[in-house]
Write a structure and sequence with these properties.
By secondary structure, the protein is α/β, with parallel strands linked by helices. It has a 7-stranded mixed β-sheet, with helices on both faces. The radius of gyration is 17 Å and the shape is globular. The structure holds guanosine-5'-diphosphate.
Length: 255
């Protein structure tokens, strides 16, 4: 198992919901929009949670596993969309109460230096200036640990986390590690997590899935007030979302 999703985090969080509620909510994810540049992103009036990570860290697999949808984040990998910020709406009955932002993976060796620099800049601008940004999920392959690019990102994030931005490091592909290796990398990563949370995750073994979903739900629902969530521009009714058993997530990821 992983750390408790209710471990102390800056700012107060509501109690963790039942895992079924959190997973049902995640399953409502639907494509909202894609943008190559920050200023093309629509303003969002609900909590926005960004997924970032080095290319190949397991970000797409993690998003697909959390949302129990085989293709959602792999759509981001279609030619022409790999360097885009892709937004997904979340919320029951077609009413958006949060947005997931899938940021392009960084550090991909085959990308030209100028493209890398351009994207690092877009990412930094996004992290520093995006209004409504509520939380960041940094995906990291624990066999590589935090790379230089991850560390650079942490430095950018540190002041924002101190101001209350939620932050979680998800250590992916946990199935590749023994229990004792997992415990060791968890404690090392916690030391470098800029005050955020750290959880182990395996799409293959479904480890940590409920816990991450529960924490994201808490981030997106800081206070269960009666106010209706604001609508997101351009958000249609979206596919039906209910509590029925979702499709089985992919379970044959290998790397
Ligand atoms: P991204 O570039 O960060 O979006 O990474 P992907 O989601 O495409 O994953 C990169 C590779 O890691 C793929 O071959 C996945 O099948 C593999 N992978 C992702 N998650 C897991 C996991 O939990 N366990 C294992 N064993 N492999 C995984």
């Amino acid at each position: 198992m992983t750390t408790s999703p209710t471990a102390p985090v800056a700012g107060s969080l509501p109690p963790a919901p039942d895992a079924k509620i959190a997973m049902g909510w995640m399953h409502t994810a639907r494509f909202l929009t894609t943008a190559a540049q920050l200023h093309h992103l629509p303003p969002i009036h609900v909590p926005e949670i960004a997924f970032v990570g080095r290319s190949n860290a397991g970000k797409s697999t993690c998003i697909n596993t959390l949302t129990q949808q085989k293709q959602l984040a792999f759509a981001s990998k279609r030619p022409g969309r790999t360097q885009h910020i892709n937004l997904f709406s979340l919320g029951k009955h077609g009413v958006t109460d949060a947005v997931l932002a899938d940021l392009p993976g960084y550090g991909y060796a085959k990308v030209s230096r100028s493209d890398k620099l351009r994207w690092q800049q877009v990412m930094v601008n996004y992290l520093v200036s995006r209004p409504g940004l509520t939380g960041i999920v940094l995906l990291c392959d624990p066999r590589l640990g935090l790379t230089d690019l991850d560390e650079a990102l942490l430095e950018v994030l540190r002041p924002r986390v101190e101001e209350g931005l939620k932050f979680l490091i998800v250590l992916t592909k946990a199935d590749k590690l023994t229990r004792s290796e997992q415990a060791k990398i968890l404690s090392i990563t916690r030391l470098n997590a800029a005050g955020g949370d750290v959880m182990m995750f395996s799409a293959l073994k479904k480890q940590g899935v409920d816990e991450v979903a529960q924490l994201l739900w808490q981030w997106a629902h800081p206070a269960q007030v009666a106010d209706a969530p604001a609508a997101v521009p351009g958000d249609g009714p979206g596919p039906a979302s209910d509590d029925s058993t979702p499709d089985a997530p992919e379970d044959s990821q290998q790397n």
